[in-house]
Automatic annotation (TrEMBL):
Domain Anti-sigma K factor RskA C-terminal: 96-219
Entry superkingdom: Bacteria
Transmembrane segments: 87-109
Organism: Fluviicoccus keumensis
One GO cellular component term: plasma membrane
InterPro entries, alphabetized: Anti-sigma-K/W_factor, RskA_C
Keyword annotations from UniProtKB, A to Z: Membrane, Transmembrane, Transmembrane helix
Gene Ontology biological process terms in this record: regulation of translation
Protein name (record): Anti-sigma-K factor RskA
An annotated Gene Ontology molecular function: sigma factor antagonist activity
Length: 229
């Protein structure tokens, strides 16, 4: 692999910062970065570009039902016995052990939520990163977060496009922004379109979407996927 190719360097650095570079590929990248200042510079640049999303993305707190399930598994509320009671400490030790075992069972056996895969960073025409596109693969849903929301007229909407290399753009759906985030549900055809995309782009279209099946308004952002699905 020609590691001196600029586009490859930026793609690998972006994947490393996003956490999608895994296994031996990640080990090779770390080794290259350790001995090459240019790799370090590119990686720092991607960290600077992507780190703002740590604050832009909404926090996801565990549902209250999770805590209710834990309380139910460890026996719910109970009346404390006197602090210096030997029986209390024996009971506490037994209860703590049981609680730990139950909590371990809960954590291990409960299916973990599917992670969102960092798919692409979409930048403005001036090269300023403004949208982070993530994929919830099992549920075929895209999650889009923006650093600086784009204001559009009431009769307009933002539309997300997949552009296969050398081919015409195809729509992935409208971005109905809710503050700084939006979600796009993908059909099976949409997943196929996404898999073929060499570039993702966002354009301003009529509120119902492009009437022609192609971008008709200004393209306000584009970027290459850093993850192949």
């Amino acid at each position: 692999m020609k590691y001196d190719h600029p586009e490859l360097r930026h793609r690998l650095a972006a994947e490393y910062v996003l956490g999608t570079l895994q296994g031996k590929a990640r080990d090779r990248f770390i080794a290259l970065m350790a001995k090459d200042p240019e790799w370090q510079r590119i990686t720092r640049a991607w960290e600077t570009r992507l780190n703002p999303w740590a604050n832009a993305l909404p926090p996801h707190a565990p549902p209250e039902q999770v805590w209710a399930n834990i309380r139910a598994r460890v026996g719910g509320d109970f009346e404390p016995e006197p602090f210096f009671s030997l029986a209390f400490w024996r009971g506490w030790a037994f209860g703590a052990t049981a609680a730990a075992l139950m909590l371990l069972t809960f954590v291990v056996l409960r299916p973990a939520p599917a992670p969102l895969l960092e798919l692409a960073v979409i930048s403005t025409p001036e090269g300023k990163p403004n949208w982070l596109v993530r994929l919830d693969e099992p549920h075929q849903r895209l999650s889009i977060a923006t650093l600086f929301p784009v204001a559009v007229d009431k009769d307009k909407a933002l539309e997300l496009w997949a552009i296969p290399d050398g081919k015409a753009p195809v729509s992935l759906g409208l971005l109905r922004m809710n503050g700084k985030t939006a979600e796009v549900e993908l059909s099976d055809q949409g997943v196929q379109r996404l898999a073929m995309a060499g570039t993702l782009a966002i354009s301003v279209e009529p509120s119902g979407g492009s009437p022609t099946g192609l971008p008709t308004g200004p393209v306000i952002g584009s970027g290459k996927p850093v993850l192949k699905i």
